[in-house]
Amino acid sequence: QNRSGGPWAAQDTLDDGSAIQVSITQPSPEKLVIDFSGTGDQHPGNLNANRAIVNSVVLYVLRLMINEPLPLNEGLLEPIDIILPDGSLVHPYFGPDDQRNPAVVGGNTEVSQRLTNLMLRALGMSAASQGTMNNTLFGNDNFGYYETVGGGTGGSPLGAGAHAVHHHMTNTRITDPEILEWRYPVRLERWAVRTNTGGAGKHPGGDGMVRELCFTQPVTLTVLTQHRTQGPAGLEGGQPGTPGRQRVIRQDGTEEKLQPTDSRELQPGDRFVLETPGGGGWGVN
Questions:
Q1: Least crowded by CB within 10 Å, which of 5, 51, 98, 208?
Q2: What's the CA gap between 118 and 24, in Å, rounded?
Q3: pLDDT (tens digit, 9 = 90+) per residue, 31-58?
Q4: Which residues pair with 186 in a beta bridge?
């Protein structure tokens, strides 16, 4: 990397193979260019990030670089040129027909996490963290519930990654177990650190989480996740973290593997087991 003015670059793929790419240059001391050219086409599902989502990622990463308590406002982006290729999953086309416009819910939750990792890796600041919010939704005609679940953060030049935490773009906390079980037809059977899932390195990645829910009423379960096909990348010779995975265990013991984005109808006694990714390691051990 050319530390005086770039380019600093990184590329990766989403779980379905869609490309994400960034190149960062500093043509002058007063200007930074962040170019997402090379990122894949508008997504046919919901993994589309509009300009507001990308701006939020850029602001977040720049504030990490500066490490000062700067107020959030539009003026912070005045010296930043952000290049977004038209018709890509970071700049999808919105037309007059709302019924045909692209879905962005996964862009807000999942692509934002993946772009944050991408920029941090390009700048050499950190190996990839879990890169997902592990969105878990369940409900029936009487209620609906939605939570995001933490995982491991990436190792960095400053030290090892953190275990089993919400981080980066998540911006939420998880429901207390007592409140969850009191208000909803579910028992929290297990909630633990998923040990030895952070990538190895001089500064290893943090471990993910294990979360197991048992339902006492029929519900529809939906998951929206990333880093199930490959683990979060290491940096400077560090190893990737362990990919996440999820499955349903039926009352009769039958197991069903869930895809990164998936849904199931569950009955009383069925369990959902979520294992979140570990962060990538930094440096050669």
A1: 98
A2: 11
A3: 999 999 999 999 999 999 999 999 999 9
A4: 215
